[in-house]
Amino acid sequence: MKAKGKMQKARIAIALCLSIIVGSLSASAQSDGSEQNKTGTPGTFAIVGARIVTVTGAVIENGTILIRDGKIAAIGTNVSVPSGAERIDGKGLSVYPGMIDAATNMGLTEIGQGANATVDISEVGTMNANARAIKGINPHTSHINVTRVNGITTVLSHPTGGLISGQSAIINLNGATQDEMAVVADNALVINFPRVATGGGFGGFAFAQQAAAPDVNAAVRRRDEQVEELKKIFRDAEAYLKAREARQKDPSLPLVGIDLKMEAMAPYVRGQRPVLLPVQRERDIRAAVKFAEDMKVKAIIVGGQDAWKVADDLKRNNIAVIYTNIYSLPVQMDDPYDYLFEVPSKLQQAGVKFAISTGNDGSESRDLPYHAGLAGAYGLSKEEALKSVTIYPAEILGIADRMGSLEVGKVANVVVTDGDLLDPRTNVKYVFINGRKLPLTSRHTQLFDSFKDRK
Known about the structure:
alpha/beta
């Protein structure tokens, strides 16, 4: 009887523990879900008496911007505010277009180390042109809220891995589904472009005294062999597409079965959409430019530590750079500390189209304004620094007709601040995405509210 009683007590204790755990998990899930599904309120909004930084035009002092039906309906000093519009007093505030982070993995990874089930960033195999980032994006990732409350309203999210990683997506940081978030569902093909790899040291520095000198010639040969493999994929895709088209015109020709990977290559092989080429060093960037020339593709360099050294080739081929190295360490031991801070200004002086990106998986995309601010302190003008995270990425990604500046008819991705958008001391007061006024809450604000009064 005593053993039976002990067993019953143990069962009760286990049941109580399980109920507590399940209850806490349910509460946590409910909290997270409600937080991430706060998609804002629609309506007609008039921000009155504010300083309006249009980016592509003159700054409007003491102006009004009218948001209606998800678009910018009017902007200027003599805007008539319709009845029923929500008036926002803009005195002492500045209005900017939402910032665009043009190279992230937003929504594809949550906890990169230690929680594999939250990572959906790559597929197995070498060639995954049919892999679409938009289908893997988690609309409820906690990274979205902590990013958009800092004034970033749009990002490009791309896969990684293999030789051809898949297709990137441009998304707005608002929406309960991938379709609601999508600006361009399939924007660019990500090619993990082969590079000359000779091994390396720690933190970007090579310690020659600890290892034998690398065989650079062998590394170049390996890189060139991989580039030839990549070119063969493009040629095979073009041959496949021509064979399919010929069969449609002449049914007597041999039937060519559908290959989803080759079908996905069509707009990229034919230069209708861009390919993203993540490369950093001068010799690899030159190889990427040569590949773009040979295959006649529309290329964009991502990374670009040494892009300024290849400026003439980039400019001649109209290849833009999405620069992701503001927070990176200098590459060589004798590089000055500000070596990577100055690259955007060098690209601008050389006439190369560029944008600044965090290149982050999503957790630190919120720092985008500070990346641009650093570049603005090391050679870029304040105006160019702002453009590097607004209109320039919009132009490079092909969405400048919809966003990147404050103009009538563009999507109302609008940020209202109490100071310079790129200054860490500035507070964001309002954020609108697709004309919806969003709550300025995130896990960070929840934690702050929970602990601010503790002593």
